[in-house]
Structure formats: structure tokens, C-alpha cells
Design goal:
The complex is a heterodimer of chains A (about 280) and B (about 290). Chain A is mainly alpha-helical. In chain A, about 80% of the residues lie in helices and about 0% in strands. Chain A has eleven helices and no strands. In chain A, helix 1 crosses helix 11, helix 3 runs antiparallel to helix 10 and helix 10 packs antiparallel against helix 11. Chain A starts with a helix and ends with a helix. In chain B, helix 4 runs parallel beside helix 8. In chain B, about 40% of the residues are buried. The chains are: A mainly alpha (about 280), B mainly alpha (about 290).
Chain lengths: ~280, ~290
């Protein structure tokens, strides 16, 4: 493109430098978290790039004394509950929106926008009062129901694209072969939108797993803490035990990282499909 | 089939929204929560909030300037990264995209703790490193107590977490621009800067709009990244933004009515921003 070989070499050098800086900036927090969690003398680490050694002591400490096993289990329970509920409701809604020629595209889009726009504080105050009245404040079920509301609009939006991508002829063929609607749904539609369901589930799970404000406000009993709230409590009690705090952070971050990398393609595909198909 | 989903959204999003408005017209404290009675005081909460110099000199500037800084930096960095991605070989592109994903995937809570640890005044990497270079004195440096320092660290955290979405979205947009446009630009003697503004930006203007709208909305309501920082949960009144202020009023002071009123004001602010943006979006699509 740019004339002389010297200019090309300079551009390449510039690209390499930019790439190196970008990767360093991007990966710094994850790298620092994991290495601090493994460093036997994490608190005295200072700015040394390599940890002074490798140990799993910090992980053992947060799991044994910090109660992180319990917290992670609670988070997983809430996450799975949210996934199941959101998956079911979103699938039904997505089929309705994509197949039955409602003009609900705009309505769903507006719901997504509202969820994005409304600040959590505007919801956490009334829902706190509501859940208190219903005696569901200190319960993981109450929390699951709240997370359902946050993941649902987006899940519908994503799934709608996947349902719309299934050719109508495939369904009609099933009807011709004598299937009822439910049989068609179970044997034809469901297997075809399964990848979309996976992507939606990953998204809903991450929403529930990462959420802090509602869990922090609703849960008072340490037995019920989710991982994010447990980490906050642990940090309050052991402020300078950075090795342990980073070990807890690593335990919370790793599942999300794995999910994200595994589902990366499908997630971005789902976003695009939701926007285009229909 | 749509009914269960609509019911859930109505019960958990619309009903609470109505209720928060209703609570904002009351002096709603612990007694009201316990007995469930109402205690109207008209517009007192709003008059109280809008009449405070604290709102105008501290909370509102914190909210607006912080959001503006975050949006600008996120979008600029995200765009630069997208342009870089477009020039990489497929292998490096995949590697870089995966690396960027880790920044996006990191939960806000754990990410914030890592940044606190990096900037920790006692033995954090940044202070120790700069002290070793003789630039600061580790003994009396604590960026968290200083309003500007506090928000600089929060900005770094939010930008780091937010730029991957912008980069990936704009990169997807870049792929839709026909190569011929850029080739024509080169033949006409336009340099990279001119081609960016004359070809890239107009071609994918809607993508930029969406990215800017979403970033603005998100950055105006940043909560976790501020609340978890030292002093951010109310101990240091200088560093609250609207969202954190609303939460602290409600759950630390037990002034749920006041907290609701602040939350309503923040919602109105966001509603205003969203409306303006959507209008410009529609105007643009009419022009096209």
C-alpha cells in the first residue's frame, strides 16, 4: 500500500508495538490476579512481575476458612435456576414472536432497552421492600426470580433470531408427516434451536453468576451468600490478605472465562442473528 | 406462549418501576417498611435533593464527568483496537480477540478487587513500582482518598472492562465496508486519517451510534466498580455518583423515600439521554 519498503517496515513495527501494548493492558488484571493467588508471599510481592513461588495455600484457605465452597455452590444453584427458568420462558416467547407473526419485534427491543437503561438502584429499592413483604429476602429462590427478569428480555431477543432461522418448510414437513404441534416442537424445532439455547443459557448464567447488588442487598445469612457477596465479606474481614482475596477472585472468574471463550462464537452469532433475521 | 415471559417482566420490572416513583413521594423509612403504611410528603424529597449544593458540586459532576471520560476513552480505544484487528493476520486476530474477551468476561466484582490490589497504597504494584523509580513516595501516597485519583482508577477499570464490546462490534462493522471504497480513497491520495473520517465513519455510522448509546447508558449507572473501592460505599462523600448516593441513602441511612427520589432522577436522566440518541438515530436513517 504505502510505497517504500522502509515505510512498510515502520508501519509493521508500529502495529507490533500497538499489539504488544494492547495485550499487556488487556491481560494485566487476569495475570496479576492468578499469579498473586499462587504467590506464597503475595502481600509482599510489590511490583515484581513473576511470583516468588507457586503454592495452592491461598486457595485452600479461602475454601476451608472463607467458606467459598458454599458460596460457589450457592452461585451455581442460582445460576442454574436462572438458566432453566429463563430458557423455558424465553423459548416459548421466542417461538411466539418469531413464528406467529406478532409485531412484537419492537416490543422486545424496547424491553431490552428498558433493562439496559433503568439503573439498578431504581429496582433494588422497591424489590427489596417487595421481597421483604413476601418473606423471600434471605432466599436463593427470591434471587433467582429477580435474575430471571434481567436475563429474560435479552434471552428472548437472542433466541428469536435462532427460531426465525429455522426454515418454515421443515415444520410443515413434520405436520404433513402427522405430527401435532408439541411433537413438532420437541422433535424438530427444539433440536434445531439447541445451539441458540446453549448460547442463551451461557448468557443467563453469567448474568446471575456476576451479579452483586441484589445478592448483596437481599442476602443476610452467610449460609446463603453467593460468591460475589462472599468475596466482599471476606475482603472486609481480611483486607490485606491479598493472596487469599485474589484466590477467591480467581475461583469466581475462572468459570466465566471458560464459558466465555467456549461460547464466544455462538454469543456473537446470536447477537447478530437477533438483530438481522426475522 | 408469550404470557409467562410478559408477566415476569411486568411483575419484576414495570411494577417495581411504578413503585419506586410512588415511594419517592413519601418519607419512607423503616416504620413504613415494617407496617406497610404510606407516608406522603409530596415533592419534599425532590426539593431536598435539588436544593442541596452537594448534588450540584459533588454528585452530579462526579456522575457526568466520569461517564463522559469513560465513554470517550472506551469508544476511542475500542475503535483503535477494531482498526488494529482489521489489519492483523487471521491467527493473530483470533488470539487478540480471545485476549480481549478475557477483559470483557472478568466479573465487575473481581475485576475491581484486582485494580484495588494493583493500586493498593500498602505494597500495591503501581505504588511500589513508581517508588522504586523514585517518582512517588510510597509512604504517603493513597490515590483512593483523593477524588481525582479515585475516579482515575475507576475510569481505568470501567474502560478496561468496556472497550472489548466496542472493539468487537466496530470490527464487525468494519468488515461490511466494501474494499473498493478504501482503494478509491487511496487512489485519490487520501491518507489513513482522511479515509477514516471520510469513508469508515460515514459507512458504519449506525454502529458507532449504538456503541455510544450503550456505553453512555452503562457508564452513567456504574455502581459496583465505585461502591467496592475504598471509601466508595459512603465513607468518603466526595466520591459518590448518583447511583451510589441513592443506594447509600436507602440502605445505609434507611431513607428509602430519598433514595427512591434520587433513583428516579437518575432514571429520568438516562431516559433523556436515550430519547435524544434514538431521535438522532432515526433522523440519520431517514436521511440515508
Amino acid at each position: 500500500m504505502t510505497g517504500t519498503p522502509r515505510a512498510t517496515a515502520l508501519t509493521r513495527l508500529g502495529h507490533t508495538a500497538a499489539l504488544a501494548a494492547l495485550l499487556a493492558f488487556t491481560l494485566l488484571p487476569v495475570y496479576w490476579m492468578v499469579t498473586s493467588a499462587l504467590d506464597p508471599r503475595a502481600g509482599a510481592r510489590g511490583s515484581s512481575i513473576l511470583p516468588s513461588g507457586l503454592t495452592l495455600d491461598h486457595f485452600q484457605r479461602v475454601l476451608d476458612q472463607g467458606g467459598f465452597g458454599r458460596f460457589l455452590l450457592n452461585s451455581a444453584l442460582v445460576g442454574v435456576g436462572t438458566v432453566l427458568l429463563a430458557g423455558l420462558l424465553a423459548l416459548l416467547a421466542a417461538v411466539a414472536v418469531a413464528r406467529f407473526r406478532f409485531r412484537f419485534r419492537t416490543a422486545v427491543l424496547i424491553m431490552v432497552l428498558i433493562v439496559q437503561m433503568v439503573p439498578l438502584e431504581a429496582l433494588v429499592i422497591p424489590l427489596f421492600v417487595q421481597m421483604r413483604n413476601l418473606q423471600m429476602l434471605n432466599s436463593l429462590i427470591g434471587l433467582t426470580i429477580v435474575y430471571l427478569a434481567f436475563s429474560l428480555p435479552f434471552a428472548i431477543w437472542m433466541l428469536r433470531g435462532f427460531v426465525a432461522a429455522v426454515p418454515r418448510e421443515v415444520e410443515e414437513a413434520a405436520y404433513l408427516d402427522g405430527c401435532g404441534w408439541f411433537r413438532m416442537f420437541r422433535s424438530v424445532l427444539l433440536p434445531l434451536v439447541a445451539p441458540g439455547l446453549v448460547a442463551t443459557s451461557v448468557f443467563s448464567f453469567i448474568v446471575a453468576w456476576n451479579e452483586f447488588v441484589f445478592a448483596f442487598t437481599f442476602l443476610q445469612d452467610e449460609e446463603k451468600f453467593t460468591a460475589a457477596v462472599g468475596l466482599h465479606r471476606f475482603f472486609g474481614q481480611h483486607t490485606n490478605d491479598w493472596g487469599a482475596v485474589m484466590a477467591g477472585s480467581t475461583l469466581i472468574t475462572l468459570p466465566v472465562l471458560v464459558f466465555f471463550v467456549l461460547a464466544q462464537r455462538r454469543l456473537s452469532h446470536g447477537l447478530a442473528a437477533g438483530a438481522v433475521k426475522g | 406462549m408469550l404470557a409467562p415471559a410478559l408477566l415476569a417482566v411486568a411483575a419484576l420490572l414495570l411494577w417495581p418501576l411504578g413503585r419506586v416513583v410512588w415511594m419517592s413521594f413519601q418519607d419512607y423509612g423503616l416504620p413504613q417498611i415494617v407496617t406497610g403504611t404510606s407516608n406522603y410528603n409530596g415533592l419534599d424529597n425532590y426539593a431536598d435533593i435539588l436544593g442541596q449544593s452537594y448534588l450540584w458540586t459533588t454528585v452530579l459532576p462526579n456522575t457526568v464527568l466520569f461517564a463522559l471520560a469513560c465513554v470517550t476513552l472506551t469508544v476511542v480505544l475500542g475503535t483503535l483496537v477494531a482498526l488494529l484487528l482489521a489489519r492483523l493476520s487471521p491467527l493473530w486476530r483470533t488470539l487478540t480477540a480471545s485476549a480481549i474477551m478475557t477483559a470483557w468476561a472478568m466479573p465487575a466484582v473481581t475485576g475491581t478487587y484486582v485494580w484495588i490490589w494493583l493500586f493498593d497504597p500498602l505494597g500495591g504494584a503501581v505504588v511500589t513500582g513508581l517508588d522504586g523509580l523514585g517518582l512517588v513516595d510510597a509512604g504517603d501516597t493513597n490515590w483512593f482518598t483523593d477524588r481525582l485519583g479515585f475516579y482515575a482508577i475507576a475510569t481505568l477499570n470501567v474502560v478496561h472492562h468496556g472497550f472489548p464490546f466496542v472493539a468487537i462490534t466496530i470490527f464487525a462493522g468494519l468488515l461490511t465496508i466494501p474494499r473498493e471504497l478504501h482503494e478509491a480513497g487511496i487512489i485519490d491520495g487520501a491518507n489513513a486519517w482522511q479515509r477514516f473520517w471520510a469513508i469508515t465513519v460515514p459507512s458504519i455510522r449506525p454502529v458507532f451510534s449504538v456503541v455510544i448509546i450503550l456505553s453512555t447508558i452503562w457508564d452513567f449507572k456504574v455502581f459496583v466498580q465505585l461502591y467496592l473501592m475504598p471509601g466508595g460505599s459512603g465513607a468518603n462523600p466526595d466520591v459518590l455518583n448518583l447511583g451510589v448516593w441513592s443506594y447509600v441513602e436507602s440502605f445505609a441511612q434507611r431513607q428509602y423515600g430519598m433514595g427512591s427520589a434520587i433513583a428516579v432522577l437518575l432514571t429520568l436522566l438516562l431516559l433523556g439521554i436515550t430519547t435524544v440518541y434514538i431521535r438522532t438515530l432515526f433522523k440519520e436513517s431517514e436521511e440515508l
